[in-house]
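pipeline/complex-builder :: batch 7 item 3
reading input block
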Amino acid sequence: MKPLIALIFLFSYIEAESTINNLTLIENNKIKNNNINNSTIKQGIIDIKNSTISDSSFSFTNSITDNSQLKNSTIRQGYIELNEATVQNSMFNFKNSIKKSNIENSTIDQSVIILENNAKILDSNISTDNLIDNLTATNSTVTQASITMKSGSKINKSKITLTNTIKDTTLTNSYILQAELLLNQNSNIEGAVITNKNSVTGNSKITDNSYLIQGRIVLEEGKTLTHNIDIESISDNVTIKNNATVSMCEVTISEDSTGDITKTCNNSDSTFDGGTHVTIASTS
Amino acid sequence: MKKIVVLSLLNLLLFAQESVSNLKLEQVNKIIDSTFSQEGVKSQGDTNIEEDAFVDNVHILQKPDIDKEIPGNLIIETTITSNGSEIHQGLTNIKRGAKLQDAKLESTNQIDYLKATSGESFISQANIIIGEDSNVTKLINNADENIAGDGTADKFELIENNNIKDTDVKNTTIHQGLVVIKDGADVSNLNITQKNSIKRSNMSGQNEINATQITQGHIKIEDGTGRNISQSVDNQIDNLSINKNSLINQAYIKSTQSDVNNLNSKLNNLNNQDIVKNEINNVTMNKSIIQQSVMIFDRSSINMLDKYNRGSGLQQNNLIHTATVDNNVTISQSTLEISNGSTISDVEYFTATNPDNEQDAINEIKNLDIADNSMVHQDKLELNSATMEDSTLYRTNSIKDTNMGNESNLYQFYTKMMEQTELKGANLSGKNFIDDIYINNSNVAQSATTIQ
């Protein structure tokens, strides 16, 4: 009845690749006032394999608020995974917040992009704005706006803006990461402009082997050509103790890379006690 | 069979080469206060249009009053104790090469207080089979009907009201409003209006469904053509206990190797005051499946799909409210699957009119207890080796006051595009809320999209 359809059906087994043009994805994800144990919550997830996306935009607004209690759980809000996929002429805009919540033995990922197996983001803009306010975290990991590139992945001719804020937050044995750009395994960024602003304020406490990392850029195991990195960090009225580590706008660039880096760093009214490690705007 | 009361019974047979115009069949088929204790087939109100017969302007009315929802196919206070009993009410069979023009089937189908808890039994109400090389069209224009561009206008209208109330059934198959279009049959301007319900009317009513298959408004298009399909759906399951490998399908369309042109699926055409269209209320389920509003297109083409174009008054499209499900239960509300070279264009797959208001969620789950490998899908879109063009998918998902446990899963608007699927121009928007829930050892995904 339909020879054409039969033909297409046959070809579909020869090459499996989907093509997406002019995709606009806007997601607004909210979790509040919940009790979540041993579970996985995903909101606004896009998983792209072996496909091409062009002239598209991705906007995520993610929040966890109002006494949400998490134990032994994973929450992913706004998570993009590109595997052998190409995104070109596109825009990523992330706005993430965690407020008035307790987390224990849990993992929260907000606005995470993972490129692997020669995935590419070309001629694109990435912008993130991350807030942690009044959070108590124990034995947990929180990631807000992370871009991980591996296995020959590439970002070309793109602008990356990373803005991070933490206030009134207590971390115990926890790992908080706001805006990380990590390249390895022959991945590279070419022709990028990276702007990063970080702040930790308002009686925040970072204790007991916790890590607070804001605006970390790590370029390793591959040739990178990164231009114009502009970093600003503020730490005000923060208690850091018991072997805690704070790193604000740390840049690590491998020897065959270049970067034009501008930094503004300010630290005031903070308390350091008990073997703490604080690094602000280091470059190596 | 001890007692059968038949108030009105009409069996019609039109033979080959016969030509009939302005045929109107009014059928009322009733089985009341009866017991079926021996294996056998009971058929009421059959219409057979044989090979090459030609019927113009046929109106089959399986309800006594066109303006009221009084059932034309009625089974009430009946008990089936035998193994292998079959009951057919209002079966229409359009056979090889027969032609219908301007066809309309209006039926109100009711099963009340049925008890069938012994052997395997089969019940059908208002089923229609359009067979090999037959077609259902209207070639003559009327002023009040749409006229297609080529000067022909086609019309096949189904208005169904399928109700099952206070039933207690086991090992039973029930089809209400099943339509089969097959083997080269050609149906144009298919307008479907369905109101499907399975409920218990009050606390004293029976409410057990065990090891039973129930379909309400199931349409199968196999190697046929459907042009200009319009579907309006209202599905409700209320106050039931559903157990032991039961399957309930409400408003289920499957097109295989067929052409479908212009599919307009609305959920709010029946009554603008209604606020929910796929609704499950006060249900306990164990090891069973409920599917509400399913459309599957396999090796088919669909040009223009307007799904869930909400009007005023509609607040949720898919609602599960107060339900306890456990032990491998699957609930699906609003499923669209397009596969194997199928093409679809001009898709509008809509949700709330006011997306800033989380009360206005298209997919809402409230007061649900779900456990033991059970699964709920609200709005699933799957494209497999398919092409979709110029499409807007806009969704709002909400989960409130819910307990999840022991490897249970909730999916709200899950989109999967795979195997060389092509998307040309798409807007995907989602607003997802999780509020006041307790989740343990379980998974929730809201607005998850996979492209591969």
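note: Chain A touches chain B through 50 residues (CB under 8 Å).
queue -> next item
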